[in-house]
Design a protein that fits this description.
Length: 220
């Protein structure tokens, strides 16, 4: 009997993109995606994630797995096909989890301030966000991917934010290439992978989506 997989998601969510990329890396494409409206959450979402009530949620044979990084690890552990996303060495696994957690705790919240905040809050967020990218670029170094030669857990956690680069540059008035050329080159390498290219949204559609979100937020 085939596995039943349902992904509760929002097309523009970087967290949902992580899950889709991880599934694609494992060659899993026969799953159902249900688009959620967080202003009017479905009964299924509330049932499957009663604690946070947020996407993404991967429902595997009726059982939910919540939180994007936990879902990616779950996918890696359950489906052994393809290359592993997390290394087998315990230290390297811990190291990868550390940097994925860093991405999780920093980029979304700071990035949101770039396109929503003004004045001192905006300037401070911009400085900190660029600092985060530089720190990540330092961790990447001259490696092909964060884990070395193989696309892995940290890459999956970070590459969805490539969709936000234009947004950050436009509203932050800075150049990602000028600030972090190695990180941009890494993003381009990742985007050449089919698993990534088919899961990232259209650049213009995504930018227009964020602009509309900003307009609505500014008029409240």
């Amino acid at each position: 009997m085939a596995d039943e997989l349902i992904l509760l998601n929002i097309w523009a969510s970087p967290f949902g993109m992580r899950v889709r990329i991880a599934l694609a890396e494992k060659g899993i494409d026969g799953y159902e995606t249900r688009e959620e409206n967080l202003q009017n959450k479905s009964p299924l979402l509330l049932q499957m994630n009663p604690v946070h009530k947020q996407i993404p949620v991967l429902i595997h044979n009726g059982r939910p797995v919540c939180e994007s990084l936990i879902i990616v690890q779950y996918i890696d552990e359950v489906w052994k096909r393809g290359s592993p996303l997390l290394p087998s060495d315990p230290y390297r696994r811990a190291h990868a989890r550390f940097w994925a957690d860093y991405v999780d705790k920093k980029l979304y919240s700071l990035g949101k301030l770039i396109w929503l905040a003004t004045g001192e809050a905006h300037a401070a967020a911009k400085e900190e966000l660029i600092g985060c990218f530089k720190l990540l670029e330092g961790e990447l170094g001259d490696k092909t991917y964060f884990g070395g030669d193989s696309f892995g857990f940290v890459d999956v956690s970070l590459i969805p934010f490539y969709s936000w680069f234009n947004v950050f540059e436009h509203f932050g008035n800075f150049s990602m290439v000028a600030e972090c050329p190695k990180l941009v080159a890494w993003a381009h390498r990742c985007a050449e992978r089919e698993s990534v290219s088919k899961c990232l949204p259209n650049e213009k559609e995504f930018f227009d989506f964020v602009v509309e979100l900003r307009k609505k937020a500014m008029t409240k």
